[in-house]
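Entry:
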Amino acid sequence: MIVPTLVYALRGADDLTRALETRGLGAAKRRTEYRKLSAGAGDVAAIVVVAALAAACILARTQLGFGMLLPRL
């Protein structure tokens, strides 16, 4: 009789603890803020390089035949 009561009490305490943590009990008073991100020159350069490599790979595959395992039938 004591063991089931103790298990029930511990389970209830765990549920209560999780509920209070979810609602922010004990959290810092100051809230965090999101930073607004913007693309810089390095980001634009990386996108251009990746797009050029992708275009070169597609061109090499379709026009020059690189990457073919079997000849076309």
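The chain has a mean pLDDT of 86.
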